Amino acid sequence: MEPARLFLGFLCASAALAASSLHQRPPQPEPLLLQEEEEPELGESPSGSLWPLPRSLRILPSQLRLAPARFQLVHGPGSTAGPSCALLQDAFRRYYEHIFGYSKWQNRGQRRLPAGTELLQLQVIIGSKDSECDNYPNITSDEAYQLSVTEPVAVLKAEKVWGALRGLETFSQLVYEDDYGSFLINESEITDYPRFAHRGILLDTSRHFLPLKSILTNLDAMAFNKFNVLHWHIVDDHSFPYQSVTFPELSGKGSYTYDHIYTPTDVRLVIDYARLRGIRVIPEFDSPGHTQSWGKGKKDLLTPCFNGEHQSGSYGPVNPILNTTYNFMTDLFKEISGVFPDAYIHLGGDEVDFTCWKSNPDVTEFMKQQGFGIDYAKLESYYIQKILDIVSSANKGYIVWQEVFDKGAKIKSDTIVEVWIGNLYTAELSRVTRAGFTAILAAPWYLDYISYGQDWKKYYSVEPLNFIGCEKQKKLVIGGEACLWGEFVDATNLTPRLWPRASAVGERLWSSENVTNIRDAYNRLVKHRCRMLRRGIAAEPLFVGYCDHEARGL
Amino acid sequence: WSHMTGAGAMAALALLLVGLVPAGAVWPQPQLVRESLGGGRCRLSPDRFRFGYARSSAVGPGCAVLDQAFLRYWRLLRDAGPRAPEDTRPWKPLCTELLVSVATPHCDGFPDMDSVESYKLSTSEDLSLLSSESVWGALRGLETFSQLVWRDEDGTFYLNKTDIVDFPRFAHRGLLLDTSRHYLPVRAILETLDVMAYNKFNVFHWHIVDDPSFPYESAAFPELSQKGAYNPVTHVYTLNDVKLVIEYARLRGIRVISEFDTPGHTLSWGPGAPGLLTPCYAGSIPSGAHGPVNPILNTTYQFMTELFKEISTVFPDFYLHLGGDEVDFSCWRSNPEIQAFMQRMGFGQDYAKLESFYIQRLLDIISSYGKGYVVWQEVFDNGVKVKPDTIIHVWRENAGPYQQEVARVTEAGYRALLSAPWYLNRISYGQDWQTAYQVEPLEFEGSPEQKELVIGGEACMWGEYVDVTNLTPRLW
Description:
- Chain A: Keywords: Cytoplasmic vesicle, Disulfide bond, Glycoprotein, Glycosidase, Hydrolase, Lipid metabolism, Lysosome, Signal.
- Chain A: One of its GO terms (molecular function) is beta-N-acetylhexosaminidase activity.
- The complex is a heterodimer.
- Chain A has 18 helices and 17 strands.
- Chain A has helices at about 1-25, 85-100, 160-175, 210-225, 250-255, 265-275, 290-295, 325-340, 355-360, 360-370, 375-395, 400-405, 425-435, 455-460, 470-475, 495-500, 500-510, 520-535, and strands spanning about 55-65, 70-75, 120-125, 145-150, 155-160, 175, 185-190, 200-205, 230-235, 280-285, 300-305, 310-320, 345, 395-400, 415-420, 440, 475-485.
- Chain B is of the alpha/beta class.
- Helix content of chain B is about 35%, strand content about 20%.
- In chain B, a hairpin with a 4-residue loop joins strand 6 (about 120-125) and strand 7.
- The interface between A and B is medium-sized, with 31 and 34 residues.
């Protein structure tokens, strides 16, 4: 096998050169305009309002009508999922509502339509013996589907329910209303599947608590944009809203108030609500840094910082030199592994500040014993290593922020490394994948960094595989995440700040690499945003204009 | 402003004192706060508390501005949190009422530039008294009062013994909303007026129409919104809507100044007013595009006369904002009839003169209706002869330091209104409120008389990227 590997290595190098010459682009200048920004021309996209754009799409000019009183979403012949599949039953009801539920159609469409012009049904056919109806989605879930809209019935075929969910969303986006309020759909053929398997949104419920309702609303919006991972950055320095059964004191003392917690019931609700939409929930319990709020409810967990000879009264990262720390983590992650069904847990590992460790004489002594010298990154790795073992023994995989990789912690080969540091992220992607690790890209998609103007274009123009590396390396990039960190975000501004800006990331991660036309994207996204409004998502405007149905109930 | 320094120093001292007690969250900070630190406080039961008129007051029950304000602030108090079960403990002292005494007997008018908003507020267990010159001052005092009430951990409401003397530093404290680039439903405007009152703003600058849409439903020219609104039924402000906004604002001591910006920013006027806009030319033939209002036709001025006659009646404020910003000359230049007119008038190639010609005639029309006007700074910059009582609105951030413009405007003897540093639509990451907060409007080179001419400022929320989905969290 050795010669073959060498040969592959050679291919890698040449591919890398080609990639660098093809894809290097100068950074885009920031718009500097005031009231006089050039108005983008709003027009019709040949792909209507579809978002994200399917992989292959043929829309014919022939229109069919849908009569709300007659149209049905049903299980098709031969489907391995039937009425006992609650996930699909719920989805049928939901999408019926999304298609028809927003106007007063009750007295319309009772008359028979001329033969050959009406669409009577959407038949959903699950092909695989195991529809996965009662499973949780996972990293390998098959989200592909085929949709064929022809008179008199449309057929949606998917191997698994996950593909059916994506196809239902697409079908609902194909339906439109004419000026007389009739519901129309064009005959169409669609084959679709995602480009990346991991398409995530990060919400931060520590810097500001987000009420359950905000999280659920966001899951709806995620489904409308074919996202499939909620990365729940649930705790951090500022507060610990996760109510642990094993260690109730953590939220008891570490949450903002008694009112600002997620009970086990809340967490289960989020997970179930997400599952029904084909969305995984990956919790992040970030350590050893970002843990100030843990200290309140867990004595001796954090490292006491010293001021010279004496304890200063403040605390640093988790104390890595105590056995009690690892006992605690074992119990906590055992609970977390049970509560969150996903195969992955995000373990954080970012931004560990060494000053407190350095100040502490016990830690210094420990460093000496272990032969770490003054290399505190080794201490960090020592800690991370033990945490990874704990999580592995709970049969979970893990995701870590890039520092864990950067600092050389020995991590299992199936570790997923999340690249977040803003500059030079392409080089980091090269390094991570060259080392054979799977990568998730978040760096260019920190949506909490707001700026004036249409910054969605910036997010849209990112090409995740635009880094130097061979095909094998590129395959290791399994997707990306749009991150909305919570320093300046709570329930008051979450939705309009996230949507439709995250939609840009949604299309980048789902659609083909060559779907990059900004004008076409603008034309579709304007409509998609109006559709989100109509479905109760207060997505903010892209630019000057209006929606037929503006946001209600704000 | 030298008379301010004493009060300013005392206010600073008061600020320090306030920092020590739970009630220290009055926003904006009153001019003078003296709070008893010796535990002088009373308990307050929202259910039993009432607002009333002092016997000495020149206005009494039936004064809608105050009657409704009492109800509003009582509700705010009541809804401040879940109610504790009826507490029958003989807990003393108990504050039971706030009496309001207004010196002048006017109640039914509109607030204006000269409205007196000062008030004195004194709270104690024996008597809480709010006295003011006008009802407008009483409104400001009620807001302050509502911010003085605080709750302890048990949920009990308290009021500290406090003396406040307050008056605004600037007479014009405005907020601009743009309902043309995105339509804002009336309820979004009303909600904004509520929050303005919570922050003691007193002018709603309604940038009601612009290039993208014309949502104002005109009785004289209904075609304007029929053809110029995003949707002629759902995306318009009917006369009733406008009246509602004006009355809702009045009840909160807020003036409504409408802006019908011309001759630029008028593309949406075109479809409903044929012949109003200048046809642009590509060489010797019309290109089909239109530019600013056509300033060479008599019909233009007849139209403006009619339209502003209506606007002058619909909007009761003495001032109208006439815009006048960002006039693009390229279309005028392309049009042969305009070129001929320029020659006849002896304007040469100076299109600013043509702009001035238009503005001049427009100002005369407005003057004939007995109205004053506010204009964007270009009107002054381009040397249009304006009446001495014109207010110049300074907005340009990128045409040299705005402080110099304020100096120029006031040196010429005009009153100035500052917006340049407060374009809140221009968002950025982080706590940008601090940048807006650190602006000192009078920090420009000029005499004390010049400084007196700065009547205030306006925070602007232009609508390119703002509609009802994000207006409130972006603005406040």
